[in-house]
Amino acid sequence: MILCKVLDVVRSGYYDYFNRLVKPISSRELKDVKMIQDLYDKSGGTYGAKRIAGGLGTKRTLLTISVSQD
Q1: pLDDT tier for residue 69 given thresholds of 50, 70 and 90
Q2: How far apart are CA 70 and CA 68, in angstroms?
Q3: Rounded distance, CA 61 to CA 28, Å?
Q4: How much is the CA Rg of the chain, to the nearest whole Å?
Q5: 64 with 26: CB under 8 angstroms?
Q6: pLDDT tens digit string along 6-51?
Q7: Model pTM score
Q8: CA-to-CA distance for 36 and 51, rounded, in angstroms?
């Protein structure tokens, strides 16, 4: 498969990823994303990850946002 060669991945890994079920977003994740988006918007779009993390301050809880490790 040409796409696998271009992406430098094995065919089985590509199909495993492609056929993986999509996990629905939990209400906790939606709440976390809203807190982050609100802080970003209030900063006028100038805050990066470190300033957002610092800006969450006492409101900060363990965020459950998944980040792909692939």
Answers
A1: very low
A2: 6
A3: 10
A4: 17
A5: yes
A6: 888 898 988 888 888 888 888 988 988 898 999 899 999 999 888 8
A7: 0.53
A8: 11
- Assess whether pLDDT exceeds 80 at residue 1: no
Say if residues 56 and 35 touch (Cβ distance below 8 Å).
yes
Cα first-last separation, the chain: 20
- Calpha distance 49→65 (Å, rounded): 13
Q: What's the token pair of residue 27? A: 């209400």
DSSP-assigned letters across all residues of 29-49: HHHHHHHHHHHHHHTTS---H
Q: SS3 for 61? A: coil
